[in-house]
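G., the chain you wanted modeled:
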Amino acid sequence: MANHKSSIKRIRQTKTRNERNRYYAKTMRNAVRNLRKMENKEEAAAAYKKVSAMLDKLGRKGTISKNKAANLKSKLAKHINKLEVA
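Predicted structure as tokens:
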């Protein structure tokens, strides 16, 4: 067990951040998965705006890397462009 006050605080902070990052990463993965399942172009385009903002935010905060966020956004945009207007 840690002996210093600062290391005890570090452990607390690390645990809190880890839980928060896991929650947001899982939420992001589910949002991406749901967007990939969409067949309707209009719905997918509306959802893409929200997912894109979420990816940018997670990339800025370091939950996922900026490159991963950019790669996911690019692949999702390609997916939406392939969809046919219903």
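The chain has one domain: 5-82.

Shout if anything looks off.
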